[in-house]
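Follow-up to my earlier ticket, as requested here are the two runs.
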Amino acid sequence: MTLTRRLSLCLVLTLIAAGAPCRAEPLQIFTDDSPPVTLNRDGAPAGWAVDVVREIERRVGTQDEIRLVPWARAYRAGLHEPNVALFATMWTEERAPLFQWVGPLQTLHMSFYGRAGDGVEINSTDDARRLRSIGVTREFAVDQELTRLGFANLDRVERPGQMIEKLLAGRNEAFASDDGFVSPAVLERWKVSAHAIVRKYEFKTTKTYIAFSLGTPPETVRAWQNALDAMRADGTFSRLTEKID
């Protein structure tokens, strides 16, 4: 055996003895039913953000499953488990140190919404504090932001559609959400007229990302960011996000 081959064999045996992984651990990739970004289509994830993530996976050479779960569950996994990716996740100052970020994917505006013609005026966050109750989706960035601001009148629900249902039933005076949930296509999906819901007051602008848990290898995160950057450069990202309504 030549010296070179002996050295190569020693290196391989050393790596095995040290427990060096042969390949990256698979990712748990979570999203929720957040139209029009992601959709629950007969139990399977769909939507433009799903298409973006699948294209990134194709480019980095993986085929890990995208799982559709309630957002609160996905968020907890991202905080406490390794090798987790969540999308589309709003970036906020509070969340920034809790994840590794790939993006951005889109810009969104957080606002208070109410029923058209209800006479409820919201011209500031102080006006919103005085309302009886405001619907928010549990653990969404809007919920976390208003909690940080000290709102004590939040009615937390599990699904975004429940915020609209409670508003129209008169159980809440308003709900707080990003503008993605009140697009005409989304309201039509929930059988709500686009004229029934009005924006009352915008209180924050932010962007969405793919958020990786801190226990995810940095090289995995870099590979995903490089793939997304390449998609922007070659026009693939623009083509896929043309589906945004």
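Run two:
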Amino acid sequence: MGINTHRCVLVFGGSFDPVHSGHVALVQYFVARLQPQELRLIPTGQPWQKNALVASAEDRIEMLKLALTSEVEVPIVIDQQEIQRAARQQSNYSIDTLNQLRTELGEQASIVFLIGSDQLQNLYTWKDWRQLFTLAHICVATRPGFSIDENSINSEVAKEWSERSATLQEIKLKPAGKTFIAHDLAWDVSATDIRLELKQKQQTTSLIPAKVLDYIQQHHLYR
């Protein structure tokens, strides 16, 4: 049996602009249930066509470290592949990110890709979205009451998702191809709203981890 046979790597990407309590809660939920060997965080690169992100890559990486290092008891790797692609003026697609991860981690590792329900609703628009399942499992955290049906998401995605549904224990023991939805994690935090509140100097302590808020204030971000 190879050393990586049942290695489980939890993968969470995003702009993290800024990192907020919803991100932390999502990661804590899946770390507690999957007990992965590694948490891989992948900050989005600055799109070279437009200034979509407010904080720099360096600031977003630092905020990730502050938010999560003391909150989860699992080794954390901040993967800069998407930042590096953007710096080379290359497009960023999840299929490319997961391909690179699979090459690095090997064929047997269980790669668990976390997304939000809004991303699930748009999954049918992603490049080579069906191929994602050959590279990783996909887990979603949704607001209470969200359902996987053709009324809430694309019918082809709904069919694929339902056919691949599995328990977290099954996911941990297989390399890729399964889905799981967490209905009991209320994650309704808007980074856009947080940035607006910070700009207006409103109190946002409850939405942002204290260490991150201190960093934002010290570096005069989102003013």
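The only thing I checked on run two: The beta strands are 8-14, 38-43, 76-78, 110-116, 137-141, 179-182. Let me know what else you need.
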